[in-house]
Amino acid sequence: MKVSVVVALVFALALGSEAVSVVKREAPELEKLTQYFQDLSATLTRTTQDIVEKLKAHELTGQAQAYIEEGKTQLQPLAEKIQEQLKPLSESMQAQIKPLADSVQAQLEELWKQVMEQTKALAAPQ
């Protein structure tokens, strides 16, 4: 990118030296050439600013990724420790809830049987 800026400046200087000789020969063209160089200078300035902004944005993205990786590295052991501590609690809760769930399931099966029997009794010809 620096090379392209340098090439552009060399190109501008070459055009400038050529323009001086043209200006001497053609005075009415002076305003056109002045405007051309002003436009060229403005374009080079905008392009340089755009490149600098893009480089800064790229640098910020890299820094953000580095911070994320660092945070992930620091949080991984904590997450593993919490998981180890919650595993016994989870197993304990599961052991307490399983008999209740089995009881509810048995009651629902019994209720379903009764509903089916009553439905058959209603549907049976009398």
From TrEMBL:
<dbReference type="GO" id="GO:0006869">
    <property type="term" value="P:lipid transport"/>
</dbReference>
<feature type="signal peptide">
    <location>
        <begin position="1"/>
        <end position="19"/>
    </location>
</feature>
<dbReference type="GO" id="GO:0008289">
    <property type="term" value="F:lipid binding"/>
</dbReference>
<dbReference type="Pfam" id="PF04711">
    <property type="entry name" value="ApoA-II"/>
</dbReference>
<keyword id="KW-0732">Signal</keyword>
<dbReference type="InterPro" id="IPR006801">
    <property type="entry name" value="ApoA-II"/>
</dbReference>
<dbReference type="GO" id="GO:0042157">
    <property type="term" value="P:lipoprotein metabolic process"/>
</dbReference>
<dbReference type="GO" id="GO:0005576">
    <property type="term" value="C:extracellular region"/>
</dbReference>
<protein>
    <submittedName>
        <fullName>Uncharacterized protein</fullName>
    </submittedName>
</protein>
